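Justification of computing resources. Each target in the renewal requires a structure prediction run like the one illustrated here; the chain below, 414 residues long, is used simply to show the kind of job we budget for.
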Amino acid sequence: MIAAGVAAIDVTPPAGLAMAGFAARTQPASGTHDRLTARALVVGDTALLVVDVIGLDRAFCARVRDAAPLPDGNIVIQAMHTHGGPSTMPGRLSPDPDPAYMQALQSACIEAIGRAVAGRRPATLSFAMAADPDIARNRRHADGPIDRALPVLRVDGADGAPMAVLVNYACHPVVLGADNTLWTADYPHFVRAAIERALPGATALFLTGCIGDLNTGHSAAASLSTSGQPGRDFPTAESYGARIATNALAASLTPLGVTASVRNADVSLGFERREPAPPGELAARWASEAETADPVRATLLRHWVRWAEAVAPRPLDPLPARVSVLDWGGMGLVGMPGEIFAATGLDLRERIGAGPLMLAGFCEDNPGYIPPAGEYAHGGYEVDEAHRYYGQPASFAPGCAETLADTAVALARQ
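Resulting structure tokens:
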């Protein structure tokens, strides 16, 4: 057996704070649909922390790791990437976060890890590859790649009772659209709730995979409207969550070993300007168009103007990034920053091999979309526009995704 512990801390903000995830949604949160949480799973002297927010930047994660009761390099932190959560990254995606909330969130993250460490007890680990729930769709290409894997890790106590279930799936937590103003973890909330109902006493965690171009079937442009859309509601999110949970619970488990380790590597991610004109010219053009545009388009254009004036002129200094590979009993868990595309995830699965494996984006930082080299020729929101919302001076340069993948493969093979 190996020592393991799990904890969940409520991190739901009060109503009235700014929400993150949709440039078209300018109104604050009006209430709560489901409680947001920070969930920690500790195995041995290593930990995974998953937080129900759209992103956490590198500095925030470093502060949490520094204050947690485990070695800094032994902790992997993921933002689950719900678009129904608060603003949590200064200068990225939405108005700046509320300072009081961010301090409370930081304390809650540290507390979650601390409680899981303090609650460690003898446990066994087991792994399953569940059946494809057939929910994710490639939103950029009708026949584009999809990561259909549904890996499941289960942690049982010495008495055989379930302590924790970790489910990993690659599909944007963005079933709810820009018209939603309630705090929510989106469909992963329903995954976790269904598993916890089926396994009383267990804590369920949802680990978001490589989802940069995957959602439930709508285009990125569909999220630029605050109008309600068919299939983007809580009943639909609940049905998807139930489907994933059902498959995860039905999967046949195989025992894992009793090892626990984390390997990390730092890399630098470069930028490349792809705009068709200098920032000043673009700002003037967008400001002029905004004068006669419809309200939603005008909101986006004004955001772009602010970006062109304040962010685009910044130097293209490389961004430091961290890649982690966590090994729990022979199951690998790869953590990478940002919005990683399905093709990169599938490449990792092929190169790392057929053993138990989980893949996670949004780990340690969420600086934006990091497309594989083959996607740049297609342009589109993820390649040519999203960096403006993420507060980056330009798109990430071709080759960044490959650098992250090569680093993960090297770590996994050590």
